[in-house]
Amino acid sequence: MTTPPSTPPPTPPSTPPPSHEALGDTPLLRVERLSVHYGGVVALDDVSFDVSEGTIVGLIGPNGAGKTTCLDALTGFQPATHGSVYFDTNDVTSLAPHRRARHGFVRTFQSLDLFDDLTVRQNLDVGAVTPTWRDTVLDALMPRRRHDAAVDEALELTGIASLAERHTLGLSNGQRHLVALARALVARPRLLLLDEPAAGLDENESATLAATLRRLPERGITVLLVEHDMSLVFGVCDRVHVLDLGRRIASGTAAEVRANPLVVDAYLGTGERHDEPEAAQ
Known about the structure:
With 281 residues, the chain is an alpha/beta fold. It has helices at residues 67-75, 97-103, 120-126, 133-141, 143-157, 173-186, 203-215, 230-236, 254-259, 261-268, 270-275, and strands at residues 29-38, 41-51, 56-60, 82-87, 90-91, 105-107, 191-195, 222-226, 239-244, 247-252. Helix 3 (120-126) packs parallel to helix 6 (173-186).
């Protein structure tokens, strides 16, 4: 008796297809079915996405969508209830935050956590951790020269070199966000995870931030950006993932995401959709 071939169950229509930043490329970061539960509260629900090396990827959604929880789970500050995180093909799901940093994970926080009794340069000195054994050897061979060069480059790249000797306590909120970004860059990350870096920035500071982010991939830094400033996200990101109520509801280019009815209804509103009527499906 011939057994008919089995038919795989259809994918539920509410679940978006797996996303791939560059089809055929091995992603630098792969997130597979990641979930985070706080007791009976599901903060992150079966989220999967990839981030290819050398790209800037946005992670957006309304307040409470699970964006910061996702960053916490990716960097080890919040244990995952289910799912896996792979970095450069290595399973880092169970690694502590400092061990993930050794792989090249560096993140910023909404709280910034600056040392207000120190100058900007001294705050960057604190961020000059050694993420890899290769860096440990190089730092041992030429420690001060390499360290100072990293600090100077980060100050220049973020446009705050003129603030280097000022204490952070007297800086504007936007300037403090740029200090936090510069401190993260000093750590020489392979993957930089930014949690709302544009909060409090004025127009000029936002332009500086956008220019800075665009230059990072050519320096070997891949970026995962959580941000509410849609002009920044759509202006710098190669791809965008959208979360709502803890689930990924859409992925695509800026134009695709802005035209997606699910995203419009959940987050962007009708104004964003009207910007590109020809792209609507």
